[in-house]
Design brief:
The protein is built from 3 helices and 7 strands. The chain is of the alpha+beta class. The strands form 2 sheets. It has a 4-stranded antiparallel sheet with strand order 2-6-4-3, covered by helices on one side.
Length: about 180
């Protein structure tokens, strides 16, 4: 499964959306042509638990309307001076990182990607925020697992280790594809 590659050229009737084509239609094609059989399982996995640190949150400014563009998959890059909401950008002064229009749930998703470990938001902080992170506090030299702790600390948040349920897709069967 990990060594053979296939190009799939398929045509759909009508005009189904990308979500339908990449979801149920692709799954049906894989089940039919590759005899793919899967099941889903829930397991407890290690996770960061994001909470509010002593002294409360810092640097979190309510997000300014129009300061960022909501990001959708497949969107072109924003124009110069524009930013996607919830992503980290080098600051204009090159002294750190700026983030616009991010919720605590979105911040957890960023932490999950950075540290490759699930993150659960337990802050109870609602809304979207803009903030600046200072590079002088070790951000550029930090390893990714340290980076999430440094970011949380600058924002007056804390990360504890915990566990959370996570969904896994288990491949029960797959074969070489049938001919055309």
């Amino acid at each position: 499964m990990g060594t053979e590659r296939y190009d799939i050229d398929a045509k759909a009737e009508g005009a189904p959306g990308q979500q339908a084509m990449r979801g149920p239609m692709l799954q049906a094609l894989l089940e039919d042509r590759f005899q793919l059989k899967i099941h889903r399982e829930s397991r407890e996995v290690p996770a960061f638990v994001l909470g509010v640190g002593k002294g409360g949150p810092k640097r979190l400014q309510p997000a300014q309307d129009g300061k960022c563009i909501p990001h959708e998959p497949g969107m072109p890059r924003p124009q110069e001076g524009q930013h996607f909401c919830g992503l980290f950008y080098p600051s204009v002064d090159k002294d750190g990182v700026d983030v616009y229009g991010i919720s605590m749930g979105d911040l957890c998703r960023q932490f999950t990607q950075l540290a490759r470990q699930e993150c659960v938001d337990k802050t109870g902080i609602a809304g979207k925020f803009d903030f600046h992170l200072d590079a002088g506090d070790g951000l550029p030299v930090a390893q990714t697992d340290e980076l999430v702790y440094l970011i949380a600390e600058q924002l007056g948040l804390k990360l504890d280790q915990g566990k959370t349920p996570s969904q896994f897709v288990i491949v029960d069967r797959v074969e070489r594809p049938s001919g055309n």
